[in-house]
Structures are given as C-alpha cells and as structure tokens.
Amino acid sequence: MWALAATAAALCLVGGWVPATAAAQTLTRAAPVLLFLVAVTALAQLSDAAGVFDAAASRAACLARGRTWLLFLLVVAMATLTTILLSLDTTAVLLTPVVLSMCAQLGLAPLPFAMATVSLANTASLLLPVSNLTNLLAIGPLGLSSGAYVARMWPSALTAVVVTAALLLLLYGNQLRGRYPLPTAPEVADRVLFWCCIGAVGAFAVLILGGVDVTVAALGCAGIALVAFLLRRRDLLRWTLIPWRLVLLVGALFVLVEGARGLGLDDVLTAAAGTGTGPTELLRLAGTAAVGANIINNLPAYLALEPVTDGSADRLLAVLIGVNTGPVICMWGSLATLLWLEQCRARGVKVSARSFAGVGLLLTPVVVLTATTALVLS
Fold first, then answer.
1. Residue 193: how many other CB atoms lie within 10 Å
2. pTM score over 0.85
3. What share of the chain is helix, strand, coil (3-state, %, to 5)?
C-alpha cells in the first residue's frame, strides 16, 4: 500500500496535478506529524528491547489476580488513559506490545485484548488536544483554549469510551471467562537500559502533560533511549527502528488529498457533508468524516473536511468525532491502527482485514451516533 500511495503522489507531482508550492505547504504542515511518528515508534521499540513491556505485562496480570474478565477491563482502562494522556499513536505503539506479551505469558487468546487496545486507541482520542494529532490540527481553526476544548468535548469523549467498552464486552464476553495462573516476574537483562527506557517513557508523559510540543517531547525522549542503547547495547540498534514505510504512506496521502482538492474534492465533500449545525446536519457530517477516514486515513480526511466546516466550531468538532472514533473498519483508517498492525505482526499475531472490519462495523455506527448526540446535547 505504501508503495502504491507513494507512486501515485509522485505521479501527481510530476504530472502537475499538485503544484510544487501546494505540496510543499501540505508537507510542511504534515512534517511534525511524521517526526512524531518516527520518534514515538523508535521509543516504543527500544523500550520493548529493554524488557519494559514484558515487565508491565506481568504487573498487569498480577493486579487482575487471575481473573480474565478483570484483566480485560484493566486493558480497557490502560488503553483509555494512555490514549487520553499520550495520544492514540502512543497507545498503539507502547501498549500493544504490553498486551500481546501479557497474552503470550498467560496463554490467553490475544485477539480480544488486541482489539480492545486498537479500538480504544481510536475511540478514546477525543478528550485532550494531545490525544489525537487531528485534535492538534484543529485547535487553531477552532480558536479554543485547551480548557475550552475539553469543556466542549468531554461528553462525547466519555460516551465514546463507555459505548466502546460495552460493545467489546458484548462481543468478546464468552472468551473472557475463566482464570489464568499468576505469572512470575520476568528477569531484566540490563537494568540500566530498563530504567533508562522507563524514565524516557515517563518523561514523555510528563512533558506532554506539561504542555510541551508533542513532537519535541517524542524526539527528546526517544533520544534518551537511543543514547542509552548506543552506550550499552549498540548491537540491538537496527534501521527498522524508523517506520519509513508508514512515513512515506502518510506523506503520500497528504499530497494525494491536495491533488484531489484541486480536482473538485471540496465540492464533493460539501455535497456529502451538507451544511448547518442542527442535530441531523452534525450527524451527517460526522458520518461523512468516519467514512472518509476509513477510505483515505483520518489525518488526510480531516484536512479534506476542514474547509467544509465554514469556521463553525460545532461542525469542526463533529468532524473530529468522525475522524477520531470512526477509523476502525479499514486497517489504514488511522496511523494508530497501522502502528498497531505492525506491532501485531512483529509479535506473530495475525488479524485478518475481514475480522477487523467485522468488529469495526459493529463499533463505528453506534459510537459515532452516540458521541455526536452527546455533542448536540452538551
């Protein structure tokens, strides 16, 4: 997919469908997103190599005291909090290995836990500006402070999380019965690397909560982990730390959306999304945003739909509901889903596109409908 998207974007540039100046402006806006993606992926992989995820998995299993359903709820809570505080991409990269390692240690079926992680990574990403990169892109056009944004969005954010958790329990309840043996704590090969990576992840959380730019925070904390590995285990460093395929894919998608806008995309989206700020109009806009996110990825979908909001805060918030909670049908719907899929493959967990879409088709309509309703009533 990344090769196809990159080729199409290159053809758009060479053929003149996307002017070089427009492409440069688009990629300039995308650059912080891409840098964040590279840095947070590197931080996650280095932390995994240091044994942080195995230790976290063992701790979570002990807290649940052998009850599978309680462990599942613990994963839901962790995914929600990590997404809210550290962004959905961080959840996909940092929490997914914890969950998969935990399932492997305990002999549990990984699919319910993996799907809970990726679902909440998307649907729990409404509350704070840092929870989703689309939120960061929207803060400027919204003209709201972080506090004002939270005041408007918290009812939708809470609704999305509760509805997602309830539907997941309904879907996977039969697989969450029974108990598991409590695991023994895994041995840490290099405690210096282990604590350096824990410190880097903790510092990332503190910096984000302190208002530091997410890209700067991610680059700085990934640098801490990288220096530690350079000093102690240089042999573990690989070029695969850089998710260059995902970087090419996302950059290409931004260029392709710019090209599509030049061919009349704005008119098509206006016709699909409608106008107005009534309940029906906002639901229509959120639904259009969810569909767009599943077709072209949530970041380009947000950029494509931003102009049709006409500066209305309610319409822009409806777009965020759609592009944040909706992209759980197609695996390319969000960066978080793509990052999650990479982590699943690295751990040998196979998730078919059909089974993923089946869960998403259950979640998306209900979550988008209820979250948008909460926006209208707030």
1. 23
2. no
3. 80, 0, 20
